[in-house]
Structures are given as C-alpha cells and as structure tokens.
Amino acid sequence: xxxxxxxxxxxxxxxxxxxxxxxxxxxxxxxxxxxxxxxxxxxxxxxxxxxxxxxxxxxxxxxxxxxxxxxxxxxxxxxxxxxxxxxxxxxxxxxxxxxxxxxxxxxxxxxxxxxx
Length: 116
Hints:
This protein has 116 residues and is α+β, with helices and mostly antiparallel strands. It contains four helices and five strands. It has a five-stranded mixed β-sheet.
C-alpha cells in the first residue's frame, strides 16, 4: 500500500466532535499531538492545561473502538488521569498522547461534556 499524499491527508482530516454534536475538522500535522492540532485550530473543549505532559486530563477524547488499534492504547499514567473523569470510557485517550500520522487520516473523536 502506498503512503497517502499530502493532498489526501489534508482532504481526510481528524474530526473532533463536541458534546453537542458540533464537528471541527483539523488538518493532520504529522508529528504533532492531537492536542496541539486542536489547540492550533481553536477546537472548543480541548484545553491542554498541562501543555501535553499527561498530567491534567483536559484534552480527553473518546476514540471510536474501530480506531483503537491504530491510535493505540493508553499508558498507565494516562489511564490514571482519565479514570478521574466520570465520562471515562474504555476508548478514552488524552489527545496530548496521540501523535498525528497519515494512518489517522479520517479519524473522528468525540469530546466529553466536561474536561477535568
């Protein structure tokens, strides 16, 4: 399988869905975290208070289960942060811990109602 071209990646952004259903499409910036991409695009509901250190839980995203193998599972530290949220699901991740790459083209994630 050939790698995606820059144009194909740009056409298939990561989509952040707010709790109210509002969608925000963000162009993939390979090598940046999903949190950095969301903050750079002013996606409401992603705060990133700790600057990407997995120490605050304010970039909580919920990944569709079909994407978990691509996105990867959370680390123990990440899990400890997420488990403090009443909205934590088995597919919850911290956006600061997910690095964008061409394999994530087309990814859609949901945001919880509240960030912790």
